[in-house]
Amino acid sequence: MFARSPVLNQSGPPEFFFRVLTTVPEFQALLFLLFLLLYLMILCGNTAIIWVVCTHSSLRTPMYFFLCNLAFLEICYTTVVVPLMLSNIWGAPKPIPLAGCGAQMFFFVTLGSTDCFLLAIMAYDRYVAICHPLHYTLIMTQKLCAQMVACAVGLALVLSLQLTSLIFTLPFCGHRREINHFLCDVPPVLRLACADIRVHQAVLYVVGILVLTVPFLLICVSYVFIASAILRIRSAEGRRRAFSTCSSHLTVVLLQYGCCSLVYLRPRSSSSVDEDRQIALVYTFVTPLLNPLIYTLRNKDVKGALRNAVLHKAASGAS
Q1: Tens of pLDDT along 242-299?
Q2: CB–CB of 195/170 below 8 Å?
Q3: Domain ranges of the chain
Q4: In CATH, what class is 15-302?
Q5: Given phi > 0 = left and psi -120 to 50 = alpha, else beta, which region is 56?
Q6: Dist. CA 299–CA 252, nearest whole Å
Q7: pLDDT tier for residue 5 given thresholds of 50, 70 and 90
Q8: Is the pLDDT of residue 182 over 90?
Q9: pLDDT for res 259
Q10: CA 50, CA 45: separation in Å to the nearest integer?
Q11: pLDDT of amino acid 25
């Protein structure tokens, strides 16, 4: 499926080329339409979540505040990758300058890291709601929620800036500037360096632990307390209702952390470029697409708000 791009001119300033997905025009058109459709669905689904949360006062709670931020992150996250990817599917391979590749990597890592931190914050929100329901409004104040989101963004920016600046101080071999990927992700760009990258791989591993392992452990600890609290609820209906508020978040966590861990925390000896690229398709397209669907289909409040909004729009249009 994946084809090699033509011989590249290596003179001039450093440039990168992405490995073309296919050279068959029919397949190019099919992939372009498929990825474009998925991208539009991601934009529409996450925009709908933001619109519903912002326009319905009943959803102005910490949980939906975090969900709104998550939806916004997914829109930005895919927008950093997909338009450039689509332009390279359609037509001849287009070069991306060194600065452009660094910028895409910086924003991709920043947004992906913020996404992981936000999922951990959402787990803490569910912990407070279920384990300390009487103190929920006192603990999860609007100020605290905004501060936690700001801290997540700030930490992600610092880690991404350090990692990206470290990688782009490396010399890149002139005859190997073809990135075997559809974006400037860290592992495939590191493979193009013509220098010792053991320190850089170690830094990537440390960043991966800080972004993936630590938040995931915090999520696990939160859910241990949540499960203990749910099991103490006497009524089966009460247990079911409490668990339903967490099931959507758990599904998203497993998708996000599972895919990212396979790319960034696997030993280099046990990973391949093709596998990394296929897994990247999952967290670039599937996870951002499923997030609004999971939260909408499994959340009565969001479904009710969407239904009311559609009915109100239809009624106003008819009149």
Answers
A1: 777 677 777 778 877 777 777 777 666 555 666 777 788 888 888 888 877 777 666 6
A2: yes
A3: 15-302
A4: mainly alpha
A5: beta
A6: 14
A7: very low
A8: no
A9: 75
A10: 9
A11: 74
Residue 34: what residue type?
A: L
Mean pLDDT of 148-171: 94
How many CB atoms are closer than 10 A to CB 245?
18
Instruction: List the alpha helices (DSSP H) in 56-193.
Output: 62-89, 98-131, 136-139, 142-167, 186-190
Distance CA(194)–CA(296), nearest Å, equals: 47
What are the tokens at 51? 């619109």
Separation of alpha carbons 10 and 115, rounded Å: 37
- Looking at residue 315, its pLDDT comes to 65
Query: Cβ contacts of residue 7 below 8 Å, gap of 6+?
Result: none
Report the distance separating Cα 263 and Cα 274, nearest Å.
Answer: 11
Phi, psi of 191 (to 5 degrees): -65, -20
83 phi, psi to nearest 5 deg: -55, -45
Q: Are 121 and 148 in contact (CB under 8 A)?
A: yes
| Total Cβ atoms within 10 A of residue 240 | 11
Tokens of residue 21, six digits = 């997905």
Residues 6+ apart with CB under 8 A from 209: 265
Residue with tokens 């009311």: 308
Helix (H, G, I), strand (E, B) or coil at 233: coil
Residue 197's contacts (CB-CB under 8 Å, 6 or more residues apart) are: 170, 190
pLDDT in the model for residue 19: 81
The string of DSSP codes covering 167-205 is HTTS-B-GGG-EESSSS--HHHHHTTBSS--HHHHHHHH
Q: Tell whether the model's pLDDT for residue 195 goes beyond 60.
A: yes
Residue position matching structure tokens 């605290």 = 144
Q: Which pTM does this prediction carry?
A: 0.85
Tokens of 163: 């990692």
Reduced to 3 states (helix: H, G, I; strand: E, B; else coil), residue 256 is: helix
